[in-house]
Amino acid sequence: MAITPLEVAARRAGGRRGADILLEILESEGVRYIFGNPGTTELPLIDALQRRPDLKYILALQEASVVAMADGYAQAAGRPGFLNLHTAGGLGHGMGNLLNASVSQTPLVVTAGQQDSRHTISDPLLFGDLVSIATPAVKWAQEVLHADQLPVLVRRAFNDSMAAPSGPVFLSLPMDVMEEASDVDIGFPSVINRDSIAGGLPELARALATITPGRLAIIAGDEVHGANAAAQVAAVAEVLGAPVYGASWPSRIPFATSCPLWAGNMPTRATDIARRLADYDAIFALGGKSLITILYSEGSPVPPGCAVYQVSADARDLGRTFQTPLSLVGNIRASLEALLPLLVQETRPRQAAFTAARDRVVAARAARQEQACELVARHRHDPVVAPCVAAYEAVRAIGPAVAIVDEAIATSSYTRMFLDSDWAAQYSFLRGGALGWGMPAAVGASLGLGREPVVCLVGDGAALYSPQALWTAAHEQLPVTFVVMNNREYNVLKGFMRGQTHYVSAREGNFLAMDLRDPPIDYQAMAMSYGLDSRLVTRADDIAPVIEAAMASGRPNLVEIVISTVV
Known about the structure:
Blueprint: H1 5-12, E1 16-17, H2 18-28, E2 33-36, H3 43-48, E3 56-59, H4 63-77, E4 81-86, H5 87-104, E5 108-114, H6 130-134, E6 141-143, H7 150-162, E7 168-174, H8 175-179, E8 181-182, H9 201-210, E9 216-220, H10 223-226, H11 230-240, E10 244-246, E11 262-265, H12 270-277, E12 282-286, E13 307-312, E14 326-329, H13 332-347, H14 351-379, H15 387-398, E15 403-407, H16 409-418, E16 427-429, H17 438-448, E17 454-459, H18 460-463, H19 468-476, E18 480-486, H20 491-498, H21 504-508, H22 523-529, E19 533-537, H23 540-552, E20 557-562
Parallel strand pairs: 2-3, 2-4, 4-5, 5-7, 6-7, 9-10, 9-12, 10-11, 12-13, 13-14, 15-16, 15-17, 17-18, 18-20, 19-20
Antiparallel strand pairs: 1-8
Helix pairs in contact: 2-7, 4-5, 4-17, 9-13, 11-13, 11-14, 15-16, 15-23
């Protein structure tokens, strides 16, 4: 391949361009994909990619989708996602999903092209204080000042994005730095073992073993997924005969939903969480921020007299909101592996009682499953498909071995209710709360899983935040099935208002700015305009066959399911 005049100049100056150095570092860090949407400030990087065929650029049509694709990739692949945004405006477009990534603690190395620093004093077009813009949403932000700084700063970004608490970091890349000549040595990736075993495990084992069998609840937070510790959580739960709950507003369900000790996710109101925990003397929380609340309700989610024990790699989360008689800092998987034999020894004198407690947990799960099936049966023949029925049929069609990315808030609680999989990494959800994450995250998840099938469940409102992701799915020919749960309104907002007696809107049934009916949105036409096959489903009996056919095609598809506004 012929070299460019800039490359010739760089070689004469005794080195290679900053953009080439950056890509060398990325290859050495094992990066396969750069997620981006290029503008003028990214042209040096785009040009350098011509000489790096092993690095694939994943084009998204808007920066919010870029960020969410990298987020979905990182969560699925278990390694940092790398993305490149377009200066201040592009970084601004991506901020909502960057905040989502921060809340979900997704490891991302976020970069953005910056104006040539030699004329920023004249306030050129596209210039902005990128570091200040990014800072609220990332662990740290810095601008690269010289090409010689790239090896240290880029490797630092990869390392720090993975360090507890994991999350996005940001680097600003000025155009002149990307074109600057340098002969700097890029070095090599650092090997960092983060499997630290917590101290105080004997004391924790004794404390947990003294709790009355059946009076302890385990909460598997999102950190369990990052630590790949689902099997260790299940082993500890078996010894203690304890139910395993998920977080109230999860990024992942990091536990096998087929496990007989799985008890579902916690509710999202403090009073409801406290009611759920009323039968327990203690909780053992694995990871932080597992009891997130949404609307305010009076009181603490942890009832009086319920002790909180915790293990987390993030020391800041221990004792942050709830007092704790003992919590430990350490990697969850390594710490539970070390804790397990201690627990076996400490619980041996009362093992029959712990076994009996386990049997009660299993029986309670069976009763919940029966109630869920009865709910579906009651609404099976409703004139418009009920959300619970839509979720049941969708989960049935998807099966236990296909990844699910969920941003369909109207059906999400039902979806989680019906999951039954041995795969602890099957399900991911919008934890940050800023809509527009699900569809692009599903695209990234498929790439992170080696282009395996993914099903994205998305609400009709959320689908309108990032429809550009459909184009990328079609362009990359990814086997992603997008299932739009369409109730033609912001149903969750109406539900929140109906739950508060003081809202006039709820009493009068008049909800301002919450209906998507005049005119109705044609999701079939939208899908086809981006190059996807699409189907409209209005009957419950058609849901599973249509989703199964879409998945079997091996191509990106959109399935729209019209659902009712209640149940």
